[in-house]
Design goal:
Radius of gyration: 22 Å
Number of strands: 19
CATH superfamily of the largest domain: FAD/NAD(P)-binding domain
Number of domains: 2
CATH architecture of the largest domain: 3-Layer(bba) Sandwich
Strand content: 25-35%
Helix content: 25-40%
Shape: elongated
Largest sheet: 8 strands, mixed
């Protein structure tokens, strides 16, 4: 079986690229190790994705945004960053931008369902489900993909989109810069007596990081990041103990807190691929860059990477050149690296700075917050980064 593009991994990035290429003349296939039912009906994983306006424009362009119920979308009108017990905080307001909000919050499972709903409208896309890749062999004309079920698929361009722990990336010999922070992120929702006023808050406390994401007026998504051993202790707390802890951590800013639903925990591991392409294969999504969630840029970066790649592929089609040639993939690599590397390094730097408990780091943190708040150029630059306006 021969295809122009084979995408390995039916996650959000892989399916978004498939949507973007579906209207071209290219013959596209998707290989996924899970059953179609599993990735087409994703379960709630507790995560709410913060989308920038640019990400929404990309989702509109590939026909996905219209599949998301507007009643589920939450606006973030302001953002605050607080450090320790300091009364100072870094404040961002949508009124300082041309937009009606800094961004939007949408449950991860809803985004995945919306992408899959769009995918189903493209009948020419070929799915190989319950299929795992055994090896990939490349030559001057493309690649042969050998599946464990003994099927062989030929592809001009192979797209690796099987996540930050990608086995295919390893098979290709692409190395990554990995950082294990030895922390875990636990997400859950809480009702509260006082309104969150559509304000997202990040509390860098001295033994944890606590994020408050506004879902409804009196409902927020809570994200708490702790050292692994402390995270295990937190997960063993009763609902009443968690209610009291979060109330105290927030100093009563949202009034009485009540845990609703399940808690979901994830280890914090970031990766950055040393190269985004090799031979006739290219990396996208978390297989290319796996971000720490503290700046909420993971999905936005992934989507921007997909957009860059599909643009380069379409340019190649217009020029009638090989979509998997060195120049096409090198251009994607360069553009996505220029965009993603500064954000990746800055995010990891922020995590290290705000989780180090040495006195000098605490002083530096407070000084940086004060400086950023009064220095308008610095603050505007941060807002641009938050909105990915520089991309």
């Amino acid at each position: 079986m021969k295809f122009d593009v084979v995408i390995i991994g039916a996650g959000p990035s892989g399916l978004a690229l498939a949507c973007a290429l579906a209207k071209t003349k290219l013959k596209v296939a998707i290989i996924e190790k899970n059953s179609k039912n599993k990735f087409s009906n994703p379960k709630n994983d507790g995560r709410d994705i913060a989308l920038t306006h640019k990400s929404i424009n990309i989702l509109k362009k590939i026909g996905v945004w219209k599949n998301i119920n507007t009643k589920i979308i939450s606006k973030v009108k302001e953002a605050r960053i607080l450090d320790g017990d300091s009364s100072n905080f870094l404040h961002f307001d949508h009124k300082k931008t041309i937009e009606d909000s800094l961004g939007y919050l949408v449950p991860n499972q809803i985004i995945r369902k919306a992408i899959h709903k769009k995918i189903q409208t493209y009948k020419k896309l070929k799915f190989f489900t319950k299929s795992e890749v055994f090896k990939i062999c490349s030559n001057n004309s493309g690649s042969k993909i050998y599946l464990k079920n003994r099927k062989i698929i030929e592809s001009k361009l192979t797209v690796i989109a099987d996540g930050r722990l990608s086995k295919i990336r390893e098979k290709l010999g692409i190395y990554t810069n990995k950082t294990n922070f030895n922390t875990s992120m636990t997400v859950f929702r809480m009702k509260h007596k006082l309104s969150n006023n559509n304000i997202a808050s990040e509390y860098f406390q001295y033994n944890q990081t606590l994020a408050i994401l506004p879902i409804k007026k009196n409902l927020s998504s809570i994200v708490i990041t702790l050292q692994n051993h402390e995270s295990k202790k937190f997960l063993s707390l009763t609902n009443k103990e968690i209610n009291l802890k979060i109330e105290n951590d927030l100093k009563g800013n949202l009034g009485k807190m009540i845990l609703t639903g399940k808690k979901y925990s994830y280890p914090m591991l970031t990766i950055y691929a040393n190269e985004f392409y090799k031979d006739r294969s290219v990396l996208i999504g978390d297989a290319a860059v796996g971000m720490h969630p503290i700046t909420a840029h993971g999905f936005n970066l992934n989507l921007k990477g997909v957009d860059i790649l599909q643009n380069e592929i379409k340019k190649a089609l217009i020029k009638n050149i090989d979509i998997s040639c060195e120049n096409v993939l090198k251009t994607y690599d360069k553009k996505f690296r220029i965009l993603s590397l500064p954000i990746y390094l800055a995010t990891n730097g922020i995590v290290r700075l705000y989780t180090n408990q040495k006195p000098i780091f605490k002083i530096v943190r407070k000084s940086l917050l004060r400086l950023a708040n009064i220095a308008r150029p610095a603050k505007n630059m941060i807002i641009d980064r938050l909105l990915l306006n520089n991309s």
